[in-house]
Amino acid sequence: MTVATRILFVDDEPAYCRIFSKRIGADPRFRVETAGSGAEALERLQHSPADIVITDLSMPLMDGIELLSEIKSLYPQIFILILTSDDSTSQVVKAMKAGAYDYLLKPFDFEMVERSIATILSHKAAVQAGLCPECLSGEQYCFENLIGQDRKMFEIYEMISQVAQTSATVLITGESGTGKELIASAIHAKSTRKDKPFIQINCAALTEGLISSELFGHEKGAFTGAVARKKGLFEQASGGTLFLDEIGDISPTTQVSLLRILELGTFQRVGGTETIKADVRLICATNRDLAAAAREKQFREDLYYRLNVVSLQAPPLRDRRSDIPLLVRYFLERYCSLNNKQIDGVTRDAMTLLCNYDWPGNCRELANIIEHAVIFSRGRTLDKDSLPSQIRTSDRHSSGLTLNLATATLADAESALIKKVLEESNWNLKKAAELLDIARGTLYGKMEKYHLTKPV
Ligand SMILES: Nc1ncnc2c1ncn2[C@@H]1O[C@H](COP(=O)(O)OP(=O)(O)OP(=O)(O)O)[C@@H](O)[C@H]1O
C-alpha cells in the first residue's frame, strides 16, 4: 500500500481552500488539509505532519514568507510551494531565497499544481534512494557537500560555480569550522579539473624544513634522509587542484618559493636544477586576517595579492542561523547511520537552544555536539538533556535574555529576542529589522503579535 502524500494548503481566502481541497483532495494519492492563516497552519502542523505545504504569499498578520521561515526552522524536511498572483515581485525572489521549493501562479492551473507536486515527490524519492538532491532541486540546500540555504550560502554557491570555470587562484577566509575545506573541494568538483587529483595539505602541520620538500619535492641526496627523488604536491596535483590550508602559517622562505611559482608558473625540486612547469589550480585557506598580516608585514604583501585573485568568505554559523535546523537534521542522519542508531528528531526546546547558541567552533562544533548526543542518547528523540551544558545555558550567556528554559516556548524566545533588539536599537524599527535580518513589515507583525510597544 502506498502512503498518501500529506498536503497542507494555506490561504486566507476560503474559496481557494475549498477549490483546492475538492480537486486535489479527490485524488487518493493525496491527503489534503487546509488552514486559513499562518498561525492556524503552524498549529495544524504540530498535530498533523505534512510533506508539502502550499501557502499564499500575501496574508494578513503572518504573511507567506514569515510562515515559510517558521516552517523551515521547525520542520526543515517539509517542501514549501508558494502561491502568488504576481511572479515579478521581489517577494517571490525572497521566498525562493528563504527556501521555497517553487512558486505557483494564482488563479492556479491544476495541471501546474500536479506537476509541481510530482517534481517534489520524485525529488523525495531520489533523496531516499541516497542521491544528492542538488541534481533535482535547483540546488535548494545541498551544493556538493555543503549544506545551507541561507542567502549567504547561496552567494557562496554562486561564486563557487563562477570561479570553478576559471583557473584563478582562490583565497578562502573564515573562522575555523566554517567549511573552507568543503568549499575548496566543491570548486574542484565543479571545475574541468574534476577528474584530476584534488590534493590538500595543512601548512600549519609541517615544519619549515619539511614544507618545501612536501610542496616541491626533492632530488636524491638533497638533504640527509633524501634517499630517493620524491615528487612534491605540485607535481602530484598536476592537472588538478592543490589546496593549501592554513596558508597564513607558512614561513617567509616558503612564501618566496610560492610567489615564484605564481609568477613564473614553474618550480624546482629541492636540491634540483630542472625547471618544472606547474599545471595546478591553487586554492588557499586561512582563518587569520591575511590582509592585516600583509599590512603589518607579517605576510608578504605581493604574495597576498597573488593569492587573493578571487576571495571567498565562509560565513560563521551564527550569521546564518536559519541553516541550523537543516544542519542539525543533516548531522543527525549522518551520525545515526554511522552509529547504527535510530533517532527521529529533535525536541522543540532542544532546537531552540541549538538555534540560539553562538557556535564559536561553527559547523564542526555543531557536528561534534550532534555526534555526541546521538551516541549517548537512549530515546528516539534528542532533547535538551542530551546537549552539553554550554548549550543548555547559552541563552542567558550569549544573548542576555531572561527566559525560563524549563517552560519557555519558541514564541517566548522570539518575543524576548525581539524585545531585546528593539531596546538595544532604541526602538528604531529600521535598525532593529536589519539586526534581526527580517523585513520591517514582518517586524511590525511580530510586535503586534507579542504586544511589544515602545515604553512612554
Ligand atoms: N556548510 C556545511 N555543510 C555541511 N557540513 C559542513 C558545512 N560546513 C562545515 N561542515 C562540516 O564541518 C566540519 C569542518 O569543516 P571544514 O573542515 O571544511 O572547515 P574549515 O573551515 O576548513 O575548518 P579549519 O579552518 O579548522 O580547517 C566538517 O565536518 C564539515 O563536513
Automatic annotation (TrEMBL):
The modification 4-aspartylphosphate is found at residue 56. InterPro entries: AAA+_ATPase, AAA_lid_NorR, CheY-like_superfamily, Homeodomain-like_sf, HTH_Fis, P-loop_NTPase, Sig_transdc_resp-reg_receiver, Sigma_54_int. The keyword Phosphoprotein applies. Residues 6-121 form the Response regulatory domain. Pfam families: AAA_lid_14 (PF25601), HTH_8 (PF02954), Response_reg (PF00072), Sigma54_activat (PF00158). GO terms for molecular function: ATP binding; sequence-specific DNA binding. The keyword ATP-binding applies. SMART domains: AAA (SM00382), REC (SM00448). Residues 146-375 form the Sigma-54 factor interaction domain. PROSITE patterns: RESPONSE_REGULATORY (PS50110), SIGMA54_INTERACT_1 (PS00675), SIGMA54_INTERACT_2 (PS00676), SIGMA54_INTERACT_4 (PS50045). Keywords: ATP-binding, Nucleotide-binding, Phosphoprotein, Transcription, Transcription regulation. GO terms for biological process: phosphorelay signal transduction system; regulation of DNA-templated transcription. This is Two component, sigma54 specific, transcriptional regulator, Fis family. It comes from Trichlorobacter lovleyi (strain ATCC BAA-1151 / DSM 17278 / SZ) (Geobacter lovleyi).
